[in-house]
Amino acid sequence: MGSTSDKISGTANEVAGKARQGVGKAVDNKEMQVKGAVQEAKGKAEVAKGKAKDVVKNVVDGA
Predict the structure, then answer these.
(1) pTM beyond 0.90
(2) Coil, strand or helix: which one is 29?
């Protein structure tokens, strides 16, 4: 995936994870809260990966 698609996918996972955590809290479901936290963390990692790709591309383009 390209950097933009990584960032978009990551942001979507972050939002979905936060929503899942909220629903889990509302219905007192610990498993759903944990799965939401994991999904949110995955999203943050994807966004970071996209940003890292941008940095590498800028360094390579500048060389």
Answers:
(1) no
(2) coil
d(CA 41, CA 57): 24
| Chain segment 7-60, per-residue pLDDT in tens | 999 999 999 999 999 999 999 999 999 999 999 999 999 999 999 999 999 999
Q: How far apart are CA 37 and CA 25, in angstroms?
A: 12
Name the token pair of 31.
């498993």
**CB neighbourhood size of 13 (10 A):** 20
For residue 20 the two structure tokens come to 């899942």
Single-letter residue type at 18 = K
